[in-house]
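Curious: explain these tokens?
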Amino acid sequence: MPKVRTALSLAPLALLLALLPLATAGFDQASADEEAATYGTDLLGRVELPNSGAEQAQKAFLSGLAALHSFWYDEAADLFREAQTIDPDFALAYWGEALTYNHPLWSQYDGEGGRAALAHLAATPAERAAKAGTEMERDYLETAEVLFDDSHQDKAARDRAYSAAWQRVYEKHPQDTEAKAFYALSLQGLPRTGDARQHMRSAALMEELFALNPLHPGAAHYLIHAYDDPVHAPLGLRAARVYAEIAPAANHALHMPSHIFVQLGMWERVATSNLAAYNASVDWVERRGHPLYKRDFHSLPWLHYAYLQQGRLDKASECIDIIRPVALKTDDQRTRSAYRGMLARQAVETGSPLLEVAEKDGNAASDTLTAFGVGYAAALNGDAHTAEEALAELKALGTNRVHHTDSRILVDLLAAVTASANGDNEAALAAARAAIEVELTHLPPSGPPGNFKPAHELYGELLLAAGRNEEAAEQFHRSLLRTPKRTASLLGAARAAKALGQDKAAREFYAQLSNNLSQADAANPTLAEARSYLSQD
């Protein structure tokens, strides 16, 4: 399938830097331009890591390092291997390739691949250290030795040991910007503690790096991740506005700003970011000759979600049309899961039946998503029998972690709408409350809600239908705190305020709805409702 087509322009870098008056102190643009021309990192950002590798290998190595900071792991690995070919004894090129096998924020780790990359330098840690040209390079190699030490069977223990290794390097070389960046990233890769302290420690380091080098891809990238929640998102807006300009060649850099934009309900910016990211991945896959599943089927679901929030259902359906033929022909489970997730989200947001249920592929994760989507859409359309069958199937699959959410929430959400379809309001409210209890054990979503329907939002809708308007208003308020400016929550809040005679509040909610839906498909009923209310004297 072709790329999603739309007009997209990138502001000049000079304009980007003009937006960052606090981040450019001491920054030498002429020096940056010279280095970009030398090392070719102008489309991936500016990184600095003095090393003993051959001069001819520096362009590939530094470009690989910059790509690594944008989580462009496949491209980074290719670039590091290119540096190895030029200089077979370039120790840090093997270190860099090894790190591409660890994706700390995605919970993906290939120990065998990382150890194999290190073994290409030399057989043992001691032999590898002997090939490092400087003390700092030996310290860097040590972090990879810790990361790929197969004695760490437990992921949490391995991540803690890895972060401690980077802390030692950073404290030993406090002026080294790369040690600062990798230490900050390692902090974010640790198990979440339930509060923001860990991420704020990481953010403090990256704020320092961002001031020293506003073109460092890791600084902008890791700041966005650190501030990726509804409370801290305003702090991440500066990095979100510029990261795509820092590394425009990396599709993940084009996608990442949308993490902040989602938290702030900036739906047009969410759509633009993910549209650019997906299209860039299409170009890269074609240029490199990679299989189609290597396209950015992480950004495409985010684009789909943005379109749904904007009421652009035709565009949302186009996104599903793009991923469908790839998902049905590949064995790549991430692509298949992304497809099932998009189908489930479309069903939940619109009530559209899932006609693709016959395309089940036998994968438990996919079956869970399909059962939930089928059942939810059926319940919304009053088909209690189909909803009950889907709920029974969902329960039979058991509880597990699927598509970035806790399947216990999916069971409770589906139970709630199924009970509602059967006219059992008390059972529906009880199931929705149970979903809230589970949901609150998790942090607010980092992007589109993984459980597809925020539990507070559903509870509010059920309360509203029962005429319990004040309670409903409170639930929509709580939903909007976790998922700001979600269209369905705004609609519920507007209707609750209207029912309570709170005209000012209702107008504010309807005005935001009208803004969300300014590009909605023709005859969008929610937009018509908002405009009708706002037109009243």
